[in-house]
Amino acid sequence: MGRERAAKTTSANKKLWDGYLRLNSVLTVSTIAFFQSAEKMSNKWSKYVEVKGRVKLHNFEKYIQELPRSRKN
Q1: CA 34, 40, 43 angle in degrees (round to 5)?
Q2: Does residue 22 come out as left (phi exceeding 0), alpha (psi in the -120 to 50 range) or beta?
Q3: In angstroms, rounded to a whole number, what is the distance separating the alpha carbons of residues 73 and 69?
Q4: Domain range annotation of the chain
Q5: Distance from CA of residue 41 to its chain's centroid?
Q6: Smallest Cα–Cα separation from 52: which of 28, 24, 26, 30?
């Protein structure tokens, strides 16, 4: 039941970005970000995001959420 619900939730959202998170020199993970609310940004995102050092998931989530607001005009 959990998987069915997750699949329905995911399909209702629009894919915002897919690419790779480089966690260190050996570990790179495939990642997909979904658009859930507010205005979708039209700019292109890099295919790779490199994470240096230890990062708490909550802090990384906040960073990703603030990216569209920090872009240069």
Answers
A1: 100
A2: beta
A3: 10
A4: 2-70
A5: 13
A6: 24
**Confidence class of residue 45 from pLDDT cuts 50, 70 and 90?**
low
Tell me the pLDDT tens digit for each residue of 6-44. Answer: 444 444 567 777 888 887 778 888 888 776 666 555 566
Contact indicator for 40, 68 with CB cutoff of 8 Å? no
**Which residue in this structure is represented by tokens 């069915």?**
4
Q: Report the alpha-carbon distance of residue 73 to residue 71 in Å, rounded.
A: 7
Question: Per-residue pLDDT averaged across 47-60, rounded?
Answer: 75
Angle at 47 between CA 53 and CA 64, to 5 degrees: 55
- Give the integer Cα–Cα distance in Å for 47 and 30: 10
